[in-house]
Amino acid sequence: MARVRAKAKQKKAFDNRVGKQELKVYDVVRIKKAVFSKKGEENGNAIRVNGRHWLNAVSPNTTKATLYALNVWRYWCMTKGLKEYMDLTKVPAVKLNELLEDFYITVKKTDGSDFLATSLHAIRRGLDRILKNAGAGFSITSSIFNSSSQKLKEKLRVLNKAGMAGARSRNIIYFSLSDQEEMWRIGCLGDESPVALLSTIVKFNSQYLNMRTLQEHADLMYGDIELLKDSQNRTFFARTDSVKRENRLNASNVCYGQIYHDHSKGVRRCPYCLLCKYMYAHRPPSQMDAKSPFYLTARKEVTGMDSVWYEEQRMGLRSLRGVVPKLAKKVMLDLCDSYTFVSFTQACRKFGPVNDYQHM
């Protein structure tokens, strides 16, 4: 009896994780009896999907990964209004390639966030296993699927650039909202000092401009963040990477995140207003050239009469790397060195590339 309850609890946890309670998009029945794989080896992890086809997984983990990939595919089909394609084993190769082109680019978790690159790879492998075990006669990794594979590569490049490769995902520790509230309360964040303002800009760039790695922050130039107007004539800051892209052929106008006015917690916490202060009010005029480094070294001492808070030199890599761990230490958190730029991103909205804007 205890064993039955344990299995039921495990199944419920799995269903919650893949989103079955939000939208019932699959009907998977585990086969209790042993079956045989194509090699003739006994395999007790077979799966029957909707009572029609079999999946012979080599291990419980592979079985779980295959189920997850199946659920992700069906959930995507449901949200796209493509219920007739939920059984991918019945979709012709040409049509499936067309669907996968859109799938790789637009698929999201049930909470609307992007999958890690490693997760997207695993989903693709799971879908391919389903086709293989169903005897579909083709693989989504074959040359027939070149165009969809190219879309996958494009999405993986975007994810890797955003620090969402996934290789170190298990080591990520996120700041809670209460942790961040404490940072504001004690003055670690805000505009009360050069260091506090700089730390705040690092937080906002990580949170809103999709900057997840040390290299992305270190390579950022002053001209890579621009003041733009959207289609409703609202001004906003955007990371366009225009300095990095100026030497590229066919560089398109896109932005990788936006910062708008937000006075919901007061003007002193508005991301837009604080970025204005850093970029225009407290920066040396000589460092406002497009190719100037974005992050500058904070002056150790400033008076109330000083408008310039930063030196005319790039912030060092060691100092930049230490910004987030120092914030964690200020609010008395354990494992301070484990906090990174990604630690600010758990609850933020992730923006995709946007091209509907005009320069100021």
TrEMBL record:
Keyword terms of this UniProt record: Isopeptide bond, Phosphoprotein, Ubl conjugation
UniProt domain ZMYM2-like/QRICH1 C-terminal: residue ranges: 175-328
Name the UniProt record assigns to this protein: ZMYM2-like/QRICH1 C-terminal domain-containing protein
Top-rank taxon, per record: Eukaryota
Membrane-spanning ranges: none
Pfam name, any one: DUF3504
